Amino acid sequence: ILAQVCASVGASWDCGSPASLWSLVAVVTGVSIAMDNTAIMTAPMDGFVESEAHHKLFLQAAQPGIWLEDPPLEFAAVLQRPSGQADAGGFKMDLDVNDGYTLQVMRFEPGPVSEWNKHHGLAKYKDIRPYDRIFQVNGQRGDSRDLLQAMKSGDHIDVLIRRPIEYKIKVVYGKAGLGLDMHTNLDGSLVLKSIKQASPFDEWNKVHWQTPVQAGDRMIEVNGHRGNAEELVHFMTKDYELNLVFAH
């Protein structure tokens, strides 16, 4: 795999040298790797290297794997900042930071995202869509605030994006109901805002703490029925026991 990545960038790297190969990995991933007790230097995060060759390498090396029929659940994108826009708002996206470690795309206006989508949608399935989650910016992961900060530097940003993933839960109405605070988005989706303590959903999260229901997740199915927010709320009143499908 390293040899394939190295070959894709041409003669600018010595593909026959192990140190050169690991240096290539370090530039792609942002991880400094030591060989023979000698640290290989990488581009600093605060001054992320901006070059067409770098962005091309990022898009080639950050693929989630080989797929034949199924669209990728994760993919790389490079967005160009409009001139004169020095902050994250220059990318014309509304981003939700409720889960604390990703940036959820809620909507976007004509600009860098729509330009990317013109060339990477349709058969490539790499267009950025509402509810996609940005989980890496310029090699940085972790806290949502750090991701937002990383979006403020450079003429381009390299991002890794994850499609929404569906999951199922089963809950039973409690004495005080379900304990959910939800709102309806402009597209008619039913989105979770918060969960009350000691509610059925709070108890579910305590047991399933590794895969909890979180703020920003969309409810997309109630007892086998799918529809808009009004329809889902209607189906939630029909049964005492609920089999629900959310998308995170």
SSE order and pairing:
Layout: H1 2-8, H2 18-29, E1 34-35, E2 38-39, H3 52-61, E3 74-80, E4 93-96, E5 103-108, H4 112-120, E6 133-137, H5 144-150, E7 156-162, E8 166-172, E9 180-184, E10 190-195, H6 200-207, E11 218-222, H7 229-236, E12 241-247
Antiparallel strand pairs: 1-2, 3-7, 4-5, 5-6, 6-7, 8-12, 9-10, 10-11, 11-12
List key phrases describing it:
248 residues; 25% helix; five-stranded antiparallel β-sheet; alpha+beta; elongated
Main sheet: strand order: 3-7-6-5-4
SSE pattern, N- to C-terminal = HHEEHEEEHEHEEEEHEHE
The total count of helices amounts to 7
Unreliable residue stretches: 24-50, 64-68
Give the strand tally: 12
As a percent range, the share of strand residues is: 25-35%
Average pLDDT level: 76
Global morphology: elongated
Sheet with the most strands, sense and barrel status: 5 strands, antiparallel
Radius of gyration, taken over Cα atoms and rounded to an integer in Å: 21 Å
Distance between the termini: 31 Å
> What is the percent of helical residues?
10-25%
**Structural class by helix and strand composition:** alpha+beta
Summarize the structure.
The chain has seven helices and twelve strands. With 248 residues, it is α+β, with helices and mostly antiparallel strands.
Describe the structure.
By secondary structure, this protein is of the alpha+beta class. 25% of the residues lie in helices and 25% in strands. The protein has helices at residues 2-8, 18-29, 52-61, 112-120, 144-150, 200-207, 229-236, and strands at 34-35, 38-39, 74-80, 93-96, 103-108, 133-137, 156-162, 166-172, 180-184, 190-195, 218-222, 241-247. The chain has a five-stranded antiparallel beta sheet with strand order 3-7-6-5-4, with helices on both faces. Strands 8-12-11-10-9 form a five-stranded antiparallel beta sheet. A two-stranded antiparallel ribbon has the order 1-2. Strand 1 (34-35) and strand 2 (38-39) form a beta hairpin. The chain is elongated. The relative contact order is 0.11.
